[in-house]
Each structure stands twice: as C-alpha cells, then as structure tokens.
Amino acid sequence: MIKSLLIANRGEIACRIIRTARRLGIKTVAVYSDADADALHVRSADEAVYIGPSPARESYLVGARVLEAAKRTGAEAIHPGYGFLSENAEFAQAVLDAGLVWVGPKPKSITAMGLKDAAKRLMQDAGVPTTPGYLGDNQDPMHLAAEAGKIGYPVLIKAVAGGGGKGMRLVEKPEDFFDALASCQREASASFGNDVVLIEKYILSPRHIEVQVFGDSHGNIVHLFERDCSLQRRHQKVIEEAPAPGMDEVTRTAVCAAAVRAAKAVEYEGAGTIEFIADGSQGLHADRIWFMEMNTRLQVEHPVTEAITGQDLVEWQLRVASGEKLPKTQDELAIDGWAMEARLYAEDPARGFLPSIGRLEVLQIGLTPGGRIDSGVDEGTEVSPFYDPMIAKVIAHGATRAQAIERLSAMLRETVVYPVRTNAAFLVTALGHPQFLAGTVDTGLIGREGDAMVQAQGPSKAALARAAETLVNRSRVPGFRLNAAPQRHGRFLLDGKPVEIALAGPGTEHPRTSAIVSENGQAWLLTPWRRTGAHGAAVGDGAIVAPMPGKVTMVHVRQGQAVKKGQKLLTLEAMKMEHTLAAPFDGNVADLRVEAGAQVQVDSLLVRIADQEH
Ligand code: ADP
Ligand code: ADP
Ligand code: MG
Fold first, then answer.
1. The whole model's pTM is what?
2. Domains in the chain, ordered, with CATH?
C-alpha cells in the first residue's frame, strides 16, 4: 500500500479523500491557490503546498505545479479527485513518467473515453447499445443537417469534447438547426478547444441512469449497481440516488452487464462510471437504455453507492492503485436499502440560481440517523467566485426510498446558512414533488416546472414570532416577570426591511441583539428596529455578546485593563459591515474571551466588563 498521497484537488472531494487516506495511515499532501490559503482541505492535510493564483488555470489546472509539489514533499501517489486534471490523459502520463502512482485509470483508457464520438464507436464494437445518431467525420453543416433529418427531430447536438453539461444543444425543428449548430460549436471551441460535434436522437422522457464500475490491474472488473441522476437543472445533476426507482432485476442485470462490457473494452482500472440515457416513458426496460458516455474518475455522487453497498470507494481506489486486487468480488456485493444525495449550493434560486458568494457567517447542516455530510467549507469560509460554489453534498441512507427521502429532506429543512443564499429550500421542494415521490422524474422536470418550485417565501408568522420572542426575552431584566401581559407589537428589521411582529408577552423597550430566523432551509436576520449597528449588546451585567454572527477583526483592550464607558473594546466584521463594541459603563475587562480573527456566533459571549466594585 502507498504511504503518502498528494490530492490534486480542493473542496469537499479533497477533504473526503484525505479522510480515507488518514484512516488507512497514509500521509496526505494538499495543494492550494491564493483563494484557498485557509481552506478546510489545507487544514485537514498533513502538509500543504501553495501552487499559484486563485484562477484554476493558474493553479489547480497546472500539471507541472502539482508534480513539483509532489516531488518537493516526496508524495508517492497523486489522486486527482473529479474535475480539474482528473480526465487529463497527458497529466496522468506525466505522473507515471515522473515515477509516481496515478490513482486513476491508465492514460489510454482515459483517451479512449475522452471524446464522445470515439467512445460511442468503441462501445458499438463492444456490443453496448448506444443512442441512435450520427458520429461521422463529415462536419459540413449541410451534411450534419441532413443526418439530423434522417435521425428524426428532436435531436441533440453534442460537442465530442464536451463535459459538465456544456457544449450541448437541443434542436426541436429543422429550421433551428443551423443556429443551434453554430452556437454549440462556438461554445465548444471556447470551452474545450475542439468544435467537432455529433448528433443524437433526443430521447423523450429521458432518465439518467449510470453504473459504477471498478477494475484492478489483475484484469478483474465488477459493477456496484446503478444510480439514478434524472433530477437535473440544465443538464447538471441536482439530486442523485441509488438504486434507480423502478429498476427490476432483469433490467438491472442487463444494464450492469453492459457497463462491465464497456469497462472491459478499455481494460479499465480504478473507479469509473458508465452513463446511460433511458427512455422512461414506459418504465425502465433494457432495450430502451443506451450508452451515453464514460466518466473515467470518481464521480461527485459516489457516496450514494457507498451507502447502499457499505464500501468505501476511495479506499478501493487507493488499494487498486497500490496494485492490490479489488476488495470484493461481484458475488460479495449487494444492495442494502436506499440512498439519496443532494448538492447544496451557494446560489440564489430566486435570482436564476446565480452563485451567491460571500462569507459563510452561519453554516449548520442538519444531520439525521443514516445521514452523511461531505463538505469542503466550514463556518467563516469565504465562498469565492473562482470555483464551483458547492457548499456540501448532503446524503441520507434509509431502509426504503421513502425513508431516504424523508431523512434527506429533514437534513435540508434543518440547514441554516447565512448570509449566503442556498438552494436548500428548492431541494426540499424538489424532494416533495409528486413525480419525484413516484420515482418517475425525467431530466426535463426542473426546466418545465422550475419557476413554480423557486417561489420566494418569507418566514412564517410563527417562525418570526419565535425569533422575536427570543430577542425580547433575552433582553429582559433578570428576575422580572409578568403574568397576563397584554399582546403588543414589536418593530424589527428582517434582512434590513421593516416588519411588525405580534409579541405575546412583555419585553424591554429596547431589545438589543439580533437573531437568525430559519425555516425549511432558508434563513433571515432579524434585528431590533432601534439598532444602529454602532453599539454591541451589553446586558445589565456587563456581558458583551456578539450582536450577529461575524469575525472579530480587532481587540482594542487587554484582560484586566480599566475602561471608561463608551470605550472601544472590539471590532466585529459582520454582514459586510464593521461594528464597534463599546464598554457599557466604567469598569475593567474581567473576562476577555476572543482574539482577533475569531469567528463568532450570534449571542456568544465576547468579553465581560465588571464595574468598579467587583
Ligand atoms: P457528474 O457527472 O458527476 O455531475 P460532471 O461531468 O458534471 O460530473 O463533472 C464533475 C466535475 O468536473 C464538476 O466539478 C465539473 O464542473 C467538472 N468538469 C466536468 N467536465 C469538465 C471540463 N470539461 N472542464 C472542466 N471541468 C469539468
Ligand atoms: P456531459 O459530458 O456534459 O455530462 P452527457 O452526454 O453525459 O454530457 O449528457 C449530459 C446530460 O444531458 C444527461 O445527463 C442527460 O440529461 C442529457 N442528455 C444527454 N444525451 C441525451 C439524449 N440523447 N437525449 C436526451 N437527453 C440527453
Ligand atoms: Mg455526463
């Protein structure tokens, strides 16, 4: 077994690989860019090497920098994760040429599957059913249009070098063909430096079914069953599950056998995924499921397969790369229960799913029995514009599909993220969609009904009242109690907008702190109307608590120091503003709890001022 491993990636996948490596006693080396200097993957690894500026092209995508880092630290092997250099055959070869272990398939297997047209030809030769279409070398637009006509509309134009949902155009009718072709070619040459396209029949009621395969260097290949990733937005997966709903044993056996044939055709080693497209209009049947492409790497959604098989696929990758045999034979693998994963993104569904960047002042993800959270960030992390804004993969395993859905939904409903916006509420809505519950989702569902699924909703009256009560009660003078208090209204600011909230009992006239109101995966900040942001919250006993979640940027006093009323104690940066916290009366610094740089939660005690008598 290898003894040290460099992870040529970032975020959740780097953290996830580090976890398994550590468990196996393997030393880990992280690499990082400027934007990631303080990232969780850097803090989790045994060692970390800086490899360049924030844009991936200048750091994570520069193979030479990664190799240099491996040499410098004496790392024996390189794990590429997914994305970045993972499907770059040239880089894989350079790793091998440098005498290092590449945790992935042989470069020639990556090349064979790298272009969609070549891969489809190879699969046809191996007897794997492929989507009807045109793979020709003749790229003349007139010829392509004629081929599209022969296939029959609607058709899909796909860049052969495409990936990640890019470089694809759906064409519904012949008149639109040439415009779609030109725009597809432009995107393909800009993104992939290759404008060759293929044409495929567009499958109606398409379901995305994929099979996890694994090979070793001794010629063994197994499958670890299928996943269903049909819930997509713009050809990007949103929720993934295993097994696929409605998959009967006969169909499963046929599809998984086709996947193993596909992997054998390229002498596959390591973790790979064979993606199929199914015509789901009449349920799943082997003769209506076709090969789409192979991803020659670990997949984002691999945790659902781990959950239903009880295997650690990263451990499998490391063992296979070390020359060991596959940990299990096909007969030893079975499906246990149901698993579901949602991709929690820093994005704003109400604004067309635009990335929502900024600091994660509050980050709490619910955890249920059977739950798993794979994340590459923690509270205080800045979601930067440089990389994919995924916050976490939230995964739930249950005995049945219904239980997995309910557990995943509960985790998302209990998720609180602020002030960055997330798709948590949208995911909850998607999980509760009748078609999703029935297990008959096609890839177009969000495209058709997405608008209705993202309707912006404020907090319920009950949630607001609960949050407002905590503010008012918190500010009460200790020992002060009134029964039979009259109902009254309090004035507050909800994310900066005025609201009146009915309060059940008495409180002070001047509540001073703020609270996060969270409900169903959404979060808002509630602050008292009178707060100016200029003073911190000091209750009668001199305790200064954080008025909102943020970061302490400066500490102006020392433990034990004498201070005057109004003297600056701390500077807190929160919600993109600076807040100065001042002494509420003359006294001394009795209990200084924080230092500069500390990330603090709303209401956490920062410092206590004792008056002169104490
Ligand atoms: P999955 O099928 O697991 O959703 P994708 O094919 O969408 O995987 O890609 C997984 C990761 O790789 C994503 O982070 C995606 O952005 C990245 N990726 C995929 N293809 C490319 C590419 N051609 N260039 C750069 N990144 C890519
Ligand atoms: P990428 O490399 O970008 O992942 P894929 O070929 O895997 O490209 O296709 C991405 C998604 O596009 C699929 O998951 C599916 O939703 C849709 N898709 C691809 N091919 C077809 C097809 N022939 N008919 C209908 N939908 C398709
Ligand atoms: Mg794909």
1. 0.87
2. 4-103 (3.40.50.20), 114-131+205-336 (3.30.470.20), 132-201 (3.30.1490.20), 338-448 (3.30.470.20), 458-529 (no CATH), 534-614 (2.40.50.100)
